UniProtKB/TrEMBL annotation:
InterPro entries: Niban-like (IPR026088), Niban_1/2/3_dom (IPR059060). The gene is Fam129a. Residues 9-154 form the Niban 1/2/3 domain. Belongs to the Niban family. Pfam families: Niban2. Signal peptide: none annotated. This is NIBAN protein.
Length: 154
């Protein structure tokens, strides 16, 4: 009881007024990273569509979809997404000194883990909604892939 009132006063005066601006500042790199994940997924699926339109090869399409499933674990392709979040390092350094925020690397790592998880969910959902083996009419495959992609991105 003797600590509650001073702690409440300290939070109300020294932390709460800054929370909105802190969250806005932190959300910039986080949103940018997640946008990059979305763009990467979109780009990879568009490449599958273009390749299929050129080759009309169902076997190759299946291989490309299988390769898409490995995208969340492809550190080279995911790196641009992760780099967007590294900007948090600088932002959190300022917060560390002002508000005693520790474990900056943990915050960045967790954010990157969520990005990878989002990509895993996207490619899994794509695979579940689109199965090349169930596509009888190869003329409609590219359209179907596009529809599935848009559904996943939604």
């Amino acid at each position: 009881a003797s600590v509650s009132e001073p702690a409440q006063k300290c939070c109300t005066e020294n932390i709460q007024p800054f929370l909105t601006s802190i969250l806005e500042e932190l959300m910039g790199p986080v949103s940018s990273g997640f946008t990059e994940v979305r763009l990467l997924f979109d780009k990879e699926v568009n490449e599958i569509i273009q390749d299929f339109q050129k080759t009309n090869d169902m076997t190759r399409l299946k291989e490309n979809v299988d390769q898409l499933m490995t995208l969340p674990f492809n550190s080279v392709k995911m790196e641009p997404c992760y780099l967007k979040v590294n900007l948090l390092q600088e932002l959190l350094q300022d917060l560390k000194s002002r508000f005693k925020v520790y474990h900056i690397d943990f915050v960045i790592q967790r954010t990157q883990n969520y990005m990878q998880e989002l990509m895993e969910n996207a490619v899994y959902t794509f695979e579940q909604l689109f199965s090349p083996s169930h596509q009888a009419d190869s003329a409609k495959v590219a359209t179907t892939i596009e529809k599935v992609k848009l559904r996943v991105l939604k």
